[in-house]
Structures are given as C-alpha cells and as structure tokens.
Design brief:
- Helix content is 40%, strand content 22%.
- It is an alpha/beta fold.
- It has a 5-stranded parallel β-sheet, sandwiched between helices.
Amino acid sequence: MRLLLVEDNHELARWLSSSLTGDGYAVDWLGDGQQADQALQQESYALVILDLSLPGQDGLEVLRRLRARGQTLPVLVVTARTELDDRVTGLNMGADDYLAKPFELDELRARLHALLRRTQGYAGQTLTVGNLSFDGVNRSFYYGGEPLPLSKRESALLEVLAGRAGRAVSKEYLFEQVFGMEDDVNPEAVELIVFRLRKKLKDTDLTITTLRGLGYLLDVSNQGG
C-alpha cells in the first residue's frame, strides 16, 4: 500500500518513513507543497499524510486543490498548528483526520489504520477478537454468535479498541472517534462508556485494561470475568 508523506522537517520525515516502511507500507516523501501537488496529479496513493506549514505551497492549498480535482483518497493532516480555527478549516476543506504535533507513533498508526479500513472496504468485513466479532455490514457486535446489546457510543468505542486489540488507545483518540466535533461533551465521558462496556463484557473472555498515561487496551484474557 503506497502512502505519500508531505513533511518539511527532515528528521521527522525520515523517522516516519522508516517506521511506516517497517510496517509494510511503501512511502514516498516530499518536503515541498508544490511538489506534493504535482505528485498527487501524477501518481496513485492510498493515503496522504500532510503537514500544513510547507515551503512552495501551503498544506491547506495542497488539500484544496486535491479535493477540487475530485480526488477522494483520505488525508491525515499532521501539523504543529493546534488552533481550533486551523483544525476546523482543514476538516472543512476535506481532511479526513487531524493529528497535532508532537504525537506518538502508535497514535499515528491507529489513525492511518482507521482511515484505510474505511476506504479499503474494511467496513464490510468481520473483525474478530477472541469470541467477540464485529459485523461491518450491519455494524453490530456478537459474542459467541449472540448479539451483544450495546448503545451506539459503546459500539463505536469498542470498535476502535477491537481494531487495535492488544495495543493501547489514548483517551483523547477514543473521544474524537466516539464524539467527533461535539463541543458540549466532557472528555471524561469516555470513562463512563468504558465503565459500561466493562459491565457488559464481564462474563466474556475480553478485558478492557486502563494503562496509566497511555489509555485503554482491549485484550483476550485466559478466562472470562
């Protein structure tokens, strides 16, 4: 799977390129917005990781021109610009997700995987963790073949954890995936949803573990409870 990384910080770009190549991706790296715009017109990519502050052409202009051409490939904006206005502008111009610097590599990986699953047909497939399965067609969870009664937000949070089973997912990322741009919800609502999920999973082979400073992890235990 071929990705385009557009980042003018050479040290960061080399680190990301090396890490993502190690994950099995083919990565093209460009440090100039104008060059990136040209590459996107000439080459085919599964996803773009796009910085906003670029020489040659601003990242937002690269994004605007990409969408104006009707190209629908997912764009993950990665930038030091943390102001809400910049974030909203990027999302309104067609960015699919937004990650502020500095960030953890696992957080970037999680967002990449989520975007690629969404665009590569994952939504119509079945995800399985232990005896838990997720039907991407009707977006429902089953345990041991029986429907698992979950609210919409419980299901959304469990889908994120199940997609990264065995790895930590930050509370901030879970909040963004479950609540999106809602500004009237306290981030602590994630803890309430996790609490409810734990109760519904208490007799299963799955556990949701809190990792201090890292987030939450869904894992298959040796025994239910």
